[in-house]
Amino acid sequence: MLPWRSVAGNVALALEHHKLTRTEREARIAEVLGLCGLTDFADALPKQLSGGMRQRVGIARAIAVRPAVMLMDEPLSALDAQTRELLMEDLVAIWARERTTTLYVTHNLNEAVRLADKVVVLSRRPGRIKRIVEISVPVADRARPEHAALLKGMHDELWSLIKAEAQVAEREIQDA
Fold first, then answer.
1. Taking the complete model, does pTM exceed 0.85, yes or no?
2. Which end of the chain has the least Cβ crowding within 10 Å, N or C?
């Protein structure tokens, strides 16, 4: 984020090279600020925002241009657990509304099971596809108690695919 621009100004940055009228641009900014829960913070500067709010601005800026594909690399990794949970709920709602294909990179298995339709498990060096795990429960239903056991099983399956390599990586760090 540019520290001298407001939240709305940072979102506007993504739209500056798009052929939109001022009215269209302002409407799109208002739309994505609302979608990301930022309407009341439109005039705030980045230094006035929490880490979670700054992540929301980044998401708003990304979806403002209506991308065909959104690439997200560990977008929640620097956030506390409560903020991460809230943002995961927001991402589910945003993706349901915007219908944007998203490639979401994470090392957090809970995030993967909570957000993904498919989880692509990669090996360590070199990164090769080990397995693609389909998450059969619709994203909107994953918080329902009747799906807890199935989702826990998927989490455990993912962990079993990476556990040995994670142990090797841990030993390498300890030996270094």
1. no
2. C
Nearest to 151 by CA among 163, 162, 139, 161: 139
Q: Which letter, b or e, does each residue of 70-99 get, where b requires 16 or more Cβ atoms within 10 Å of its Cβ?
A: bebeebbeebeeebbebbbebbbebbeeee
3-state secondary structure the chain: CCCCCCHHHHHHHCCCCCCCCHHHHHHHHHHHHHHCCCHHHCCCCHHHCCHHHHHHHHHHHHHHCCCCEEEEECCCCCCCHHHHHHHHHHHHHHHHHHCCEEEEECCCHHHHHHHCCEEEEECCCCCCEEEEEECCCCHHHCCCHHHHHHHHHHHHHHHHHHHHHHHHHHHHHHHC
As a residue count, the chain comes to 176
